[in-house]
Prior knowledge:
Blueprint: H1 4-14, H2 16-20, H3 26-31, E1 38-40, E2 44-45, E3 50-54, H4 60-73, E4 89-93, H5 98-111, E5 122-125, H6 134-147, E6 151-155, H7 169-186, E7 189-195, H8 217-220, E8 223-229, E9 239-248, E10 253-263, E11 271-278, H9 280-319, H10 327-334, H11 338-350, E12 354-361, E13 364-371
Helix pairs in contact: 4-5, 9-11, 10-11
Amino acid sequence: EVPEDLLDELYRDLGYDEVQFPLFTAAELNSGQFETRYLIPGVLVAGQPGGIFGAFKTLKTSLTADLLISLASGTPFLGQFPVAEPCRTLFLSGESGLAALQSIARRISTSRGLSLKTLDNFLLSPKLPQLDNDVDRRALKRLIRDKRPACVAIDPAYLAIRGEDSRNLFAMGSVLRLVAELGDETGCTILVVHHCKRSKQIAGDPATLDDIAWSGFAEFSAQWLMLSRRRRFDSETGHDELWLTAGGRAGHHGQWALDVEEGTPEGPGGRVWQTALSAPTTAETEAEVRQLWAVQGKRERQCAVTLRRNRNRVLAALEARESGETPRYLRQNLGLTCIGVNAVLGSLLDEGLIEPTQIAKRDRVENGYRVVAGQALAGG
Length: 380
């Protein structure tokens, strides 16, 4: 057994400590040129690990495909965010299946005026590495060094990492740290696609890092894209209304309302991919207007139901009195308000179901109404 002092001297002579713990003096730190380079300005930093996170069925895979195809083709991400320069991308997606991946890749390409068959910079594999397996991790490292992608997406995380330690921050951190180190060694931006907690399946507020399921992912991510629903998915039209939040340690951040038209196989245009982004305030204003209209519509429906019910009650009361009755009698005996009685009588008069008449009341005559001859309850 080699004495520790000899091992220490050997490591020192080999420069092991400098490699293991690179040191910067204050002057070197001050004068160093540590540039932050963006693949997509304000959205995606080169060489930093991160994730695309969202609740169940919030288009995580589709948005990831849009991101990678945008980088590969040099066309704007989601039609809005310019790409710094075209670069090679690699999509490792093991959940959706090749048919679904082919469909979304074709639709995204078509929306950009591109042909998928000529998109040489975009690579895809339906197989996922096991990130907690040394052999798979080395294979992924060789693949990145061989194909030289600037960005790799691994979709989804739960198929690439065993879940026994999903709640153990230290265990998950050790796996994700190795992924981050792989990105550092290769200069590749590695994104992990992962789900949010079930609580974020309810449409409403934008998702945050606190909503990410499992331990370690929020801490691992130097940058992130978060997806959550603004409204429930409209399956009849294939319309999605989402929140999209971007952020990162480099200081970039933003939030948008993302609308996606996917279409339906039975629809006139079939399946499509059309995206539109707007400011959160615009989306919130639209949501408030929709809510007001919904409340107004509900109130109108309730009023219509009440009016129909009261019409039948008034007609029945008038039919029971051949000579007719006064509005005051109807109010008192049917428990209606003055406005309610007038609304009912007005609608019945407009339809010709009742007519004005004179009602003898003891020592006086009052204005009243009676059912028109031949008009029965069926008329109401």
